[in-house]
Design brief:
The chain has helices spanning about 5-15, 60-75, 80-85, 90-95, 105-120, 130, 145-155, 160-165, 175-190, 190-195, 205-225, 245-250, 255-270, and strands spanning about 25-30, 35-45, 50-60, 135, 140-145, 225-235, 240-245, 275. With about 280 residues, it is an alpha+beta fold. It folds into three domains: about 5-125, Sufe protein. Chain: A, CATH 3.90.1010.10; about 130-190, Orthogonal Bundle (Arc Repressor Mutant, subunit A), CATH 1.10.10; about 205-275, GMP Synthetase, Chain A, domain 3 (2-Layer Sandwich), CATH 3.30.300. The protein binds FE2/S2 (inorganic) cluster (FES).
């Protein structure tokens, strides 16, 4: 029997904003009935980009319903761009915590939110991590990018934790070797964080170091292959870049972003920088 907080009980027994929203203009759908959990999140976003109303339909356990319910409360009245910054941890925290085996419910909420806002913006209605990654767990439709992102956002260190947060590996187990490999590779990047903790960095200093690293370390390497890179935004430790020239047409741009751009920014700026492509 899971130990649920009072907030989870309340949201499960008396869900807020339950049901579809007829005038929704942003809908995010994640999970599938075959996987045991599914969430369809409805948002009504006004012309000013503010989420005016919300609704949801969830198939799943008490945690899935509670996560969906609290999420619809959290985002109501928020600007869509600000809502995109909500993490699964925020959802779990709003519920006073979730059993570790149920953290995947909060991840499902965050992904549905991202999918809905992407649809509203005219982008493919699929979260980044699902769209760009390579499929790792066929039973639950989980990609490598999704595993890496969940590990980074939640500080995961073991395969078991990855299963708790994403469900990957929790059925036939055929993907466990691949998950072990991803976890090992991801953790091998971590010692920089642990061995060389750096003092807290100001936004201005971070921006300066990002620009310097792009100019001195990254751009010359891309230019030698006929490519280039442009800085689009720095939002805390999230750096958004755009690949140019030959890099922009490259099918392995995801690898360039993570294995070159992110690796060097982590080395020269901050060890927990997350790089996304615009
Ligand atoms: S492929 Fe991942 S559990 Fe079956």
């Amino acid at each position: 029997m899971w130990q649920y907080t009072e907030a989870v009980h309340d949201h499960f027994l008396h869900p807020h904003n339950a049901g579809p929203l007829d005038d929704a203009n942003a809908i995010g759908e994640v999970g599938s009935l075959a996987c045991g959990d599914a969430l369809k999140l409805y948002l009504k976003i006004n012309k000013a980009g503010v989420i005016e109303n919300t609704g949801f339909e969830t198939f799943g356990c008490a945690s899935a319903i509670a996560s969906s319910s609290v999420l619809t409360d959290m985002v109501k009245g928020m600007r869509a761009d600000d809502a995109l910054k909500i993490t699964n941890k925020d959802i779990a925290t709003a519920l006073g915590g979730l059993p570790k085996q149920k953290m995947h419910c909060s991840v499902m909420g965050q992904e549905a939110l991202e999918a809905a806002i992407r649809q509203w913006k005219g982008e493919p209605p699929v979260p980044h991590a699902l769209e760009h990654g390579e499929m790792v767990c066929k039973c639950f439709g989980v990609t490598d990018a999704q595993i890496i992102r969940t590990m980074r956002e939640n500080g995961l260190k073991t395969v078991e934790e990855v299963t708790n947060y994403t469900k990957a590996g929790g059925a036939c187990g055929e993907c466990l070797d691949k998950i072990t490999e991803i976890v090992g590779k991801e953790l091998s990047l971590k010692p920089l964080t642990e061995i060389r903790p750096k003092p807290r960095m100001t936004n201005v200093r971070r921006m300066q170091l990002v620009l310097k690293t792009l100019d001195e370390e990254i751009r010359p390497r891309l230019e030698s292959d006929g490519g280039d890179i442009e800085l689009v935004d720095v939002d805390g430790r999230r750096v958004v870049v755009s690949l140019r020239g030959r890099c922009s047409q490259c099918r392995s741009s995801d690898v360039t972003i993570h294995n070159l751009v992110e690796r060097l920014l982590r080395e020269h700026v901050e060890p927990d920088i997350i790089v996304e492509e615009a």
